[in-house]
Amino acid sequence: MKKTIGILMFVFLLFSVSAITDNETNLTNPGTTPDSALYFLDLAMENLGLALTIDNDARIEKELEMAEERLSEAKEMALENNLEDMAKAEEKHDKILTKLKSELGNVNANNSTEELKKQLKIEQKINAHDVKVKNVKNELKLKIEVSGNLTNEQQQLLDSLIASFENKAGEVEIEINNEKGATKLKITNETGEDGEDIEDDLREELEIEDDNEIEIEVEKGIAKVKVEINDIKQEFELKIDSNQSEYQIREQVMNEIANKYSISVQEVKKIKGEFEIEDEENEDEEDEDEEDEEKGISDSVNGQEDEEDEEKGTSNSSDYRGSQEDEEDEEKRTSNSSDYQGSQEDEEDEEKGTSDSVNDQGSQDSKSDEE
Fold first, then answer.
1. Could you write out the DSSP letters of every residue in 169-202?
2. How far, in Å, CA of 255 to CA of 248, rounded?
3. Are 70 and 42 spatial neighbours (Cβ–Cβ below 8 Å)?
4. What's this model's pTM, rounded to 2 decimal places?
């Protein structure tokens, strides 16, 4: 009996060694793959180790490790175009995560805050697994599509298997998020503190950084979306109905992001981001405003020129009137001068007349004397 247990432990250790990692996707080495005659023994040893793990938190961690190994096996089989054995790995992956999902509500903790803290740690590992699933998807898509070794039927099967990996990982993410939500509600009811604030504090304590970010720009009926979630970056465009409200556009984009990342819409809405809408109507209004502004400037310039012309005209009119007045003054002076000369002549004539009269009188007197 002891000898049998010793052999089993040796085999368990033999198949558990997987320290070598895949540099491209950061996956553990697949070890024994589904196409090996010893694959069933590998699975038996893993299941035995899981059965001997009593602590629920430790079980969850071990199940995530087993799920990662199934993912690594699936990738290896896909690269060898062995989709039949890839399907075997996918089936085992699905069963492991289904079991894990059912155990997420049994986290051992002394109080709600400690429970939330453990859930955050589990969530971090689940998110890391989801990242690896998407990395495998992208790598297989690149390598297999470039090689072109698959028939259409095989390509459809491959796409279906990859989608199954993504969907199951997404289900687990949603479940841990739901469990967190329930725990935060308990914290609020028990302590009166905001569960969201407690989560933020715990994230800071655990040094869990949220680098997720969404940038959305809507222009001319097209939403240009840039997303980074769990270190996976994507850029895509989405056609938008221009008659939709801003809220409807936002919801449409959020749903598309949730589908692409296999996460809930609620999770997407929590991600920090920028949302900007520049529709054609606003652009037309801006163009009209610019034209009106330019027209206003032109009218202002023309108005200034008209004022200058008017002032110039007024000045010219004043100068003309001044010239007329000068001419009238000159004529008046000329007339006065003529009148003055006439007056002088009249005086001279009068004096001459007086002199002539005196002379005539003197002549008469002289004549009288002679007589």
1. HHHHHHHHHHHHHHHHHHHHHHH-S-HHHHHHHH
2. 11
3. no
4. 0.59
